[in-house]
Protein: Agmatine deiminase family protein
Amino acid sequence: MNDPTTGRHARRMLNRRAFLAAAGVTAAGAAIATTTQGWAGSTKAAGTFRVPVEDVRHTRTWMAWPDRTAIWGRDLSGVQANIALIARTIAKYEPVIVCANPASAAKARSMCGSTVTVIDSIPVDDCWMRDTGPVFRTDGAGGLDAVGLSFNGWGDKQTHARDALVAERIAAYAKVPFTRADFVGEGGAIEQDGAGTLMATRSSLLNKNRNPGVPEGELEKAMCDAYGASKVIWFDGVYGQDITDDHVDATSRFLAPGKALVQMPNTADNDAFAKDARQQYQILSTSTTADGGAMAANKLQGPDYNKIRSTNKNFLAAYANYYVCNGAVISAHFGDKATDEAAKATLARLYPDRVIEQLNIDSLGTGGGGIHCVTQQQPAA
Structure:
Protein backbone atom coordinates (compact mmCIF):
# COMPACT_ATOMS: atom_id res chain seq x y z
CA MET A 1 0.00 0.00 0.00
CA ASN A 2 2.92 2.33 0.67
CA ASP A 3 4.85 1.56 -2.50
CA PRO A 4 5.58 5.03 -3.97
CA THR A 5 5.52 3.64 -7.50
CA THR A 6 1.87 2.60 -7.11
CA GLY A 7 0.56 5.63 -5.30
CA ARG A 8 -2.22 8.13 -5.83
CA HIS A 9 -2.96 7.86 -9.53
CA ALA A 10 -1.85 4.29 -10.16
CA ARG A 11 -5.25 3.40 -8.75
CA ARG A 12 -6.80 4.93 -11.88
CA MET A 13 -5.21 2.29 -14.13
CA LEU A 14 -8.37 0.33 -14.99
CA ASN A 15 -11.38 2.20 -13.56
CA ARG A 16 -14.14 2.31 -16.17
CA ARG A 17 -12.07 0.22 -18.55
CA ALA A 18 -12.34 -2.65 -16.05
CA PHE A 19 -16.13 -2.55 -16.38
CA LEU A 20 -15.84 -2.59 -20.16
CA ALA A 21 -13.49 -5.57 -20.17
CA ALA A 22 -15.74 -7.51 -17.80
CA ALA A 23 -18.72 -6.81 -20.02
CA GLY A 24 -16.90 -7.63 -23.24
CA VAL A 25 -17.44 -4.15 -24.68
CA THR A 26 -14.57 -3.22 -26.96
CA ALA A 27 -13.72 -0.55 -29.47
CA ALA A 28 -15.07 -2.78 -32.18
CA GLY A 29 -18.43 -2.71 -30.44
CA ALA A 30 -18.58 1.05 -30.08
CA ALA A 31 -21.40 2.35 -32.21
CA ILE A 32 -21.35 5.03 -34.93
CA ALA A 33 -17.64 5.74 -34.57
CA THR A 34 -17.49 7.08 -38.10
CA THR A 35 -20.16 9.67 -37.45
CA THR A 36 -18.38 11.04 -34.38
CA GLN A 37 -15.03 11.69 -36.02
CA GLY A 38 -15.68 15.39 -36.41
CA TRP A 39 -12.46 16.60 -38.00
CA ALA A 40 -13.34 16.42 -41.68
CA GLY A 41 -16.25 18.37 -43.06
CA SER A 42 -17.50 19.79 -39.77
CA THR A 43 -18.69 23.34 -39.19
CA LYS A 44 -16.32 25.80 -37.56
CA ALA A 45 -17.65 27.48 -34.45
CA ALA A 46 -18.48 31.17 -34.69
CA GLY A 47 -15.60 33.31 -33.46
CA THR A 48 -17.81 35.88 -31.74
CA PHE A 49 -18.80 33.42 -29.02
CA ARG A 50 -16.66 32.31 -26.08
CA VAL A 51 -16.97 29.59 -23.44
CA PRO A 52 -17.08 31.49 -20.13
CA VAL A 53 -15.26 30.46 -16.98
CA GLU A 54 -17.37 28.09 -14.88
CA ASP A 55 -18.22 30.51 -12.05
CA VAL A 56 -20.46 32.76 -14.17
CA ARG A 57 -24.19 32.70 -13.46
CA HIS A 58 -25.88 29.50 -14.69
CA THR A 59 -29.36 28.98 -16.07
CA ARG A 60 -29.19 25.28 -15.16
CA THR A 61 -27.00 22.21 -14.77
CA TRP A 62 -27.31 19.18 -17.07
CA MET A 63 -26.72 15.62 -15.87
CA ALA A 64 -27.38 12.06 -17.08
CA TRP A 65 -28.74 8.92 -15.41
CA PRO A 66 -26.67 5.69 -15.59
CA ASP A 67 -28.63 2.48 -16.15
CA ARG A 68 -26.36 0.15 -18.15
CA THR A 69 -25.26 -2.95 -16.27
CA ALA A 70 -22.88 -3.72 -19.16
CA ILE A 71 -20.91 -0.65 -18.07
CA TRP A 72 -21.44 -0.49 -14.31
CA GLY A 73 -22.09 -4.10 -13.40
CA ARG A 74 -25.25 -5.60 -12.00
CA ASP A 75 -25.46 -3.36 -8.95
CA LEU A 76 -26.33 0.15 -10.10
CA SER A 77 -27.47 1.32 -6.67
CA GLY A 78 -24.24 3.02 -5.68
CA VAL A 79 -23.63 5.09 -8.79
CA GLN A 80 -27.31 5.99 -9.10
CA ALA A 81 -27.37 7.12 -5.46
CA ASN A 82 -24.30 9.28 -6.13
CA ILE A 83 -25.87 10.89 -9.19
CA ALA A 84 -29.08 11.57 -7.28
CA LEU A 85 -27.18 13.09 -4.36
CA ILE A 86 -25.19 15.39 -6.64
CA ALA A 87 -28.34 16.45 -8.50
CA ARG A 88 -30.27 17.17 -5.30
CA THR A 89 -27.36 19.14 -3.84
CA ILE A 90 -26.90 21.32 -6.93
CA ALA A 91 -30.69 21.83 -7.08
CA LYS A 92 -30.47 23.76 -3.82
CA TYR A 93 -28.63 26.44 -5.79
CA GLU A 94 -29.82 26.23 -9.41
CA PRO A 95 -32.15 24.18 -11.64
CA VAL A 96 -30.97 20.69 -12.61
CA ILE A 97 -32.12 18.61 -15.58
CA VAL A 98 -31.23 14.91 -15.63
CA CYS A 99 -31.48 13.04 -18.94
CA ALA A 100 -32.72 9.48 -18.40
CA ASN A 101 -33.74 6.65 -20.67
CA PRO A 102 -37.52 6.05 -20.71
CA ALA A 103 -37.24 2.75 -18.85
CA SER A 104 -35.23 4.38 -16.06
CA ALA A 105 -36.92 7.78 -15.80
CA ALA A 106 -39.35 6.80 -13.03
CA LYS A 107 -36.54 5.49 -10.85
CA ALA A 108 -34.48 8.60 -11.56
CA ARG A 109 -37.38 10.83 -10.52
CA SER A 110 -37.92 8.84 -7.35
CA MET A 111 -34.28 8.97 -6.30
CA CYS A 112 -33.61 12.57 -7.35
CA GLY A 113 -36.76 13.97 -5.77
CA SER A 114 -39.08 16.79 -6.65
CA THR A 115 -36.41 19.51 -6.80
CA VAL A 116 -34.75 17.89 -9.84
CA THR A 117 -36.26 17.73 -13.33
CA VAL A 118 -35.88 14.36 -15.08
CA ILE A 119 -36.59 14.12 -18.81
CA ASP A 120 -36.75 10.97 -20.95
CA SER A 121 -36.56 12.58 -24.39
CA ILE A 122 -32.73 12.54 -24.61
CA PRO A 123 -31.47 8.93 -24.33
CA VAL A 124 -28.01 8.27 -22.87
CA ASP A 125 -25.45 5.49 -22.61
CA ASP A 126 -23.73 6.67 -19.44
CA CYS A 127 -23.58 9.47 -16.88
CA TRP A 128 -20.52 11.50 -17.95
CA MET A 129 -22.30 14.66 -19.06
CA ARG A 130 -19.12 16.76 -18.93
CA ASP A 131 -17.83 14.76 -21.88
CA THR A 132 -21.01 14.03 -23.82
CA GLY A 133 -22.95 17.24 -23.28
CA PRO A 134 -22.69 20.45 -25.28
CA VAL A 135 -20.20 23.16 -24.44
CA PHE A 136 -22.28 26.32 -24.08
CA ARG A 137 -20.93 29.70 -25.17
CA THR A 138 -22.01 33.32 -24.70
CA ASP A 139 -21.29 36.39 -26.79
CA GLY A 140 -21.54 39.04 -24.08
CA ALA A 141 -24.59 40.56 -25.73
CA GLY A 142 -27.35 38.18 -24.71
CA GLY A 143 -26.48 35.44 -27.20
CA LEU A 144 -26.08 31.77 -26.32
CA ASP A 145 -25.08 28.81 -28.48
CA ALA A 146 -23.60 25.35 -28.07
CA VAL A 147 -20.72 23.36 -29.51
CA GLY A 148 -20.42 19.58 -29.72
CA LEU A 149 -16.95 18.07 -29.39
CA SER A 150 -17.72 15.04 -31.57
CA PHE A 151 -17.67 12.57 -28.68
CA ASN A 152 -16.40 9.14 -29.77
CA GLY A 153 -16.45 7.15 -26.54
CA TRP A 154 -13.01 8.30 -25.34
CA GLY A 155 -11.35 6.95 -28.45
CA ASP A 156 -13.86 4.17 -29.17
CA LYS A 157 -13.30 2.58 -25.75
CA GLN A 158 -17.01 2.46 -24.90
CA THR A 159 -20.27 2.14 -26.77
CA HIS A 160 -21.66 5.61 -27.45
CA ALA A 161 -24.45 5.51 -30.03
CA ARG A 162 -26.71 7.57 -27.76
CA ASP A 163 -24.05 9.65 -26.04
CA ALA A 164 -22.68 10.84 -29.40
CA LEU A 165 -26.01 12.60 -29.99
CA VAL A 166 -26.54 14.06 -26.51
CA ALA A 167 -24.84 17.42 -27.20
CA GLU A 168 -26.95 18.19 -30.26
CA ARG A 169 -30.16 17.01 -28.60
CA ILE A 170 -29.60 19.12 -25.49
CA ALA A 171 -28.92 22.17 -27.67
CA ALA A 172 -32.22 21.54 -29.45
CA TYR A 173 -34.03 21.13 -26.11
CA ALA A 174 -32.49 24.41 -24.91
CA LYS A 175 -33.40 26.04 -28.25
CA VAL A 176 -29.91 27.33 -29.00
CA PRO A 177 -27.87 27.15 -32.22
CA PHE A 178 -25.54 24.15 -32.42
CA THR A 179 -22.29 23.56 -34.30
CA ARG A 180 -19.84 20.68 -34.24
CA ALA A 181 -16.21 21.46 -33.46
CA ASP A 182 -13.41 20.65 -35.88
CA PHE A 183 -11.87 18.05 -33.56
CA VAL A 184 -12.80 15.04 -31.46
CA GLY A 185 -12.66 15.42 -27.70
CA GLU A 186 -14.52 15.72 -24.44
CA GLY A 187 -15.43 18.61 -22.17
CA GLY A 188 -13.30 17.22 -19.34
CA ALA A 189 -10.25 17.34 -21.61
CA ILE A 190 -10.23 21.16 -21.84
CA GLU A 191 -10.27 23.85 -19.17
CA GLN A 192 -11.04 27.47 -20.10
CA ASP A 193 -10.52 30.73 -18.20
CA GLY A 194 -13.20 32.59 -20.17
CA ALA A 195 -10.69 35.19 -21.34
CA GLY A 196 -8.85 33.43 -24.14
CA THR A 197 -6.70 30.80 -22.42
CA LEU A 198 -7.21 27.02 -22.47
CA MET A 199 -5.31 24.16 -20.88
CA ALA A 200 -5.29 20.51 -21.92
CA THR A 201 -3.23 17.33 -22.04
CA ARG A 202 -1.65 16.12 -25.23
CA SER A 203 -2.27 12.53 -24.16
CA SER A 204 -6.03 12.99 -24.42
CA LEU A 205 -6.47 15.19 -27.48
CA LEU A 206 -3.30 14.68 -29.53
CA ASN A 207 -4.03 10.99 -29.60
CA LYS A 208 -4.60 8.72 -32.57
CA ASN A 209 -7.79 7.47 -30.93
CA ARG A 210 -9.34 10.96 -31.20
CA ASN A 211 -7.52 13.05 -33.79
CA PRO A 212 -5.17 10.78 -35.77
CA GLY A 213 -2.45 12.55 -37.70
CA VAL A 214 -3.56 16.05 -36.75
CA PRO A 215 -0.61 18.39 -36.05
CA GLU A 216 -0.58 20.15 -32.69
CA GLY A 217 -0.87 23.59 -34.25
CA GLU A 218 -3.88 22.60 -36.31
CA LEU A 219 -5.61 21.02 -33.32
CA GLU A 220 -4.82 24.05 -31.19
CA LYS A 221 -6.45 26.32 -33.75
CA ALA A 222 -9.58 24.16 -33.85
CA MET A 223 -9.80 24.21 -30.05
CA CYS A 224 -9.43 27.97 -29.96
CA ASP A 225 -12.06 28.38 -32.68
CA ALA A 226 -14.52 26.29 -30.71
CA TYR A 227 -13.88 27.91 -27.33
CA GLY A 228 -13.34 31.50 -28.50
CA ALA A 229 -9.76 31.42 -27.23
CA SER A 230 -6.33 32.32 -28.54
CA LYS A 231 -3.86 30.31 -26.42
CA VAL A 232 -3.51 26.72 -25.23
CA ILE A 233 -1.31 25.72 -22.30
CA TRP A 234 -0.33 22.12 -23.00
CA PHE A 235 0.64 19.38 -20.55
CA ASP A 236 2.10 16.08 -21.77
CA GLY A 237 -0.37 13.99 -19.76
CA VAL A 238 -0.42 10.21 -19.43
CA TYR A 239 -1.31 7.93 -22.35
CA GLY A 240 -3.35 4.76 -22.07
CA GLN A 241 -3.61 4.39 -18.29
CA ASP A 242 -7.22 5.45 -17.86
CA ILE A 243 -10.18 5.62 -20.19
CA THR A 244 -9.86 9.40 -20.65
CA ASP A 245 -6.12 9.34 -21.40
CA ASP A 246 -5.68 11.80 -18.50
CA HIS A 247 -8.35 14.49 -18.55
CA VAL A 248 -7.07 17.79 -17.26
CA ASP A 249 -10.09 18.46 -15.03
CA ALA A 250 -9.06 15.73 -12.58
CA THR A 251 -5.85 17.63 -11.78
CA SER A 252 -5.82 21.27 -12.93
CA ARG A 253 -8.58 23.87 -13.04
CA PHE A 254 -8.95 27.54 -13.90
CA LEU A 255 -10.33 29.72 -11.12
CA ALA A 256 -10.28 32.95 -13.12
CA PRO A 257 -8.13 34.60 -15.82
CA GLY A 258 -4.56 34.37 -14.58
CA LYS A 259 -5.46 32.08 -11.68
CA ALA A 260 -5.34 28.26 -11.64
CA LEU A 261 -5.39 25.34 -9.21
CA VAL A 262 -3.50 22.03 -9.28
CA GLN A 263 -4.18 19.00 -7.08
CA MET A 264 -0.81 17.88 -5.79
CA PRO A 265 0.20 14.28 -5.00
CA ASN A 266 1.72 13.19 -1.72
CA THR A 267 5.48 13.57 -1.54
CA ALA A 268 6.04 9.81 -1.64
CA ASP A 269 3.92 9.25 -4.75
CA ASN A 270 6.03 8.78 -7.86
CA ASP A 271 3.73 7.11 -10.39
CA ALA A 272 3.06 8.56 -13.84
CA PHE A 273 0.07 10.62 -12.72
CA ALA A 274 1.92 12.08 -9.74
CA LYS A 275 4.76 13.14 -12.03
CA ASP A 276 2.20 14.57 -14.44
CA ALA A 277 0.56 16.64 -11.68
CA ARG A 278 3.90 18.09 -10.63
CA GLN A 279 4.66 18.95 -14.26
CA GLN A 280 1.29 20.64 -14.62
CA TYR A 281 1.99 22.79 -11.57
CA GLN A 282 5.44 23.72 -12.85
CA ILE A 283 4.16 24.63 -16.31
CA LEU A 284 1.28 26.71 -14.95
CA SER A 285 3.60 28.49 -12.52
CA THR A 286 5.72 29.76 -15.41
CA SER A 287 2.95 30.33 -17.98
CA THR A 288 1.22 33.49 -19.09
CA THR A 289 -2.37 34.10 -20.11
CA ALA A 290 -3.61 34.89 -23.59
CA ASP A 291 -3.12 38.60 -22.92
CA GLY A 292 0.41 38.13 -21.55
CA GLY A 293 -0.41 38.35 -17.86
CA ALA A 294 1.26 36.19 -15.25
CA MET A 295 -0.40 32.94 -14.16
CA ALA A 296 -0.79 32.25 -10.45
CA ALA A 297 -0.91 28.52 -9.67
CA ASN A 298 -2.51 27.45 -6.38
CA LYS A 299 -1.98 24.05 -4.77
CA LEU A 300 -4.77 21.74 -3.57
CA GLN A 301 -3.34 18.83 -1.60
CA GLY A 302 -4.65 15.42 -2.62
CA PRO A 303 -5.57 12.73 -0.08
CA ASP A 304 -3.50 9.87 1.27
CA TYR A 305 -4.83 6.73 -0.40
CA ASN A 306 -3.90 4.72 2.65
CA LYS A 307 -6.43 6.71 4.69
CA ILE A 308 -9.44 7.02 2.37
CA ARG A 309 -12.59 4.90 2.67
CA SER A 310 -12.19 3.03 -0.60
CA THR A 311 -9.73 0.19 -0.99
CA ASN A 312 -10.52 -0.22 -4.69
CA LYS A 313 -7.30 0.00 -6.69
CA ASN A 314 -9.07 1.90 -9.47
CA PHE A 315 -10.42 4.64 -7.22
CA LEU A 316 -10.04 8.29 -8.29
CA ALA A 317 -9.88 10.70 -5.35
CA ALA A 318 -9.88 14.09 -7.08
CA TYR A 319 -10.84 17.07 -4.95
CA ALA A 320 -10.00 19.12 -8.04
CA ASN A 321 -12.89 17.53 -9.92
CA TYR A 322 -15.35 19.85 -8.19
CA TYR A 323 -18.26 21.71 -9.78
CA VAL A 324 -18.98 25.43 -9.42
CA CYS A 325 -22.68 26.30 -9.44
CA ASN A 326 -24.66 29.39 -8.43
CA GLY A 327 -23.57 30.19 -4.90
CA ALA A 328 -21.75 26.94 -4.15
CA VAL A 329 -18.82 24.67 -4.94
CA ILE A 330 -19.74 20.98 -4.95
CA SER A 331 -16.73 18.82 -4.09
CA ALA A 332 -16.04 15.40 -2.60
CA HIS A 333 -14.67 13.91 0.59
CA PHE A 334 -12.92 10.55 0.64
CA GLY A 335 -12.45 9.63 4.30
CA ASP A 336 -8.96 11.02 4.86
CA LYS A 337 -10.20 13.45 7.50
CA ALA A 338 -7.17 15.74 7.54
CA THR A 339 -6.99 16.27 3.78
CA ASP A 340 -10.79 16.36 3.42
CA GLU A 341 -10.89 19.27 5.85
CA ALA A 342 -7.85 20.92 4.28
CA ALA A 343 -9.38 20.66 0.80
CA LYS A 344 -12.60 22.24 2.04
CA ALA A 345 -10.62 25.08 3.63
CA THR A 346 -8.62 25.63 0.44
CA LEU A 347 -11.77 25.80 -1.68
CA ALA A 348 -13.39 28.16 0.84
CA ARG A 349 -10.37 30.46 0.54
CA LEU A 350 -10.40 30.35 -3.25
CA TYR A 351 -14.19 30.76 -3.50
CA PRO A 352 -14.96 33.03 -0.51
CA ASP A 353 -18.46 33.96 -1.65
CA ARG A 354 -19.70 30.39 -2.13
CA VAL A 355 -20.86 27.58 0.11
CA ILE A 356 -18.51 24.57 -0.01
CA GLU A 357 -20.45 21.29 -0.11
CA GLN A 358 -18.52 18.04 0.28
CA LEU A 359 -20.23 14.78 -0.73
CA ASN A 360 -19.48 11.08 -0.51
CA ILE A 361 -19.37 9.99 -4.16
CA ASP A 362 -17.28 6.85 -3.71
CA SER A 363 -19.15 4.85 -6.35
CA LEU A 364 -18.27 7.46 -8.98
CA GLY A 365 -14.69 7.45 -7.74
CA THR A 366 -14.57 3.69 -8.19
CA GLY A 367 -15.87 4.26 -11.72
CA GLY A 368 -12.97 6.61 -12.45
CA GLY A 369 -14.73 9.96 -12.26
CA GLY A 370 -16.10 12.67 -10.05
CA ILE A 371 -18.57 15.51 -9.69
CA HIS A 372 -17.24 17.70 -12.50
CA CYS A 373 -17.28 14.68 -14.82
CA VAL A 374 -21.04 14.20 -14.43
CA THR A 375 -22.18 17.82 -14.70
CA GLN A 376 -22.36 20.39 -17.50
CA GLN A 377 -23.29 24.00 -16.92
CA GLN A 378 -25.55 26.09 -19.10
CA PRO A 379 -24.46 29.69 -18.48
CA ALA A 380 -26.88 32.59 -18.50
CA ALA A 381 -26.69 34.45 -21.80
Observations:
- Residues 129 and 374 are 5 Å apart (CA to CA).
- The chain has a mean pLDDT of 90.
